[in-house]
Every structure is written in structure tokens, then in C-alpha cells.
Write a structure and sequence with these properties.
alpha+beta, 3-stranded antiparallel sheet, HTH_HxlR, WH-like_DNA-bd_sf, transcription, transcription regulation, DNA-binding
């Protein structure tokens, strides 16, 4: 029996996979929806997205910040004020999310 070398799986770059990896998990879409209306504080986001836990929201915001979709600004107040705002990259997702909203209202 000949020694057969296992081949490494071929990686194909898929633009959709890349986009989804930038956007992140399910809460990201709702965070983006809120930030399309302008900058928001953590508490405002949590109130608007009632089912998200503080940990999930924090993780989502960190992910979107690391992907340069939003910026986090900290103001030296007591207590500290933190605001989140979309970058140009984040705003560029608006049309895509809007189309998903239309699709969902028609088909879902």
C-alpha cells in the first residue's frame, strides 16, 4: 500500500464570508441598525436592543471596533462617558442592512 499524503484543504476566498467575519454575530446587525441613526452610549444601545446581555453587547462592540466598523470615544467625566459611532466603513454597510431588512419583511 502506497503512502498517500493527505492534502491540505483548499482555501477559497469568499467575499461573503469575509463580509460576515467583519460584521460578526447576530447582535452586530442590531447594533449597526441603532448606530445608523447616530452616536449612542452603551446604555442607549442596551435599552434599544432589549434582549442583548451586557456581555454580548460588550463583545459585539469590541469586535466591531477591532474591525474598524465603529469608534469608541471615552470622555473623562464622572462617571466615565463612552460613546460609539460608526466609521465610514460602518456607514458603508447601511445599504446592505437596509436590503436585508426589506428581504426579511417580505420573506420572513
Amino acid at each position: 500500500m502506497a503512502n498517500v499524503k493527505e492534502q491540505e484543504p483548499l482555501e477559497i476566498e469568499c467575499s461573503i464570508e469575509k463580509a460576515l467575519s467583519v460584521i460578526g454575530g447576530k447582535w452586530s446587525f442590531l447594533v449597526l441598525r441603532e448606530l445608523f441613526c447616530g452616536r449612542k452610549r452603551f446604555g442607549e444601545l442596551q435599552k434599544a436592543i432589549s434582549k442583548v446581555s451586557p456581555k454580548a453587547l460588550t463583545d459585539t462592540l469590541r469586535h466591531l471596533e477591532n474591525q474598524e466598523v465603529l469608534v469608541r470615544t471615552v470622555y473623562p467625566t464622572v462617571p466615565v462617558t463612552v460613546e460609539y459611532e460608526l466609521t465610514e466603513k460602518g456607514h458603508s454597510l447601511h445599504k446592505i442592512i437596509k436590503e436585508m431588512k426589506h428581504w426579511g419583511s417580505y420573506w420572513a
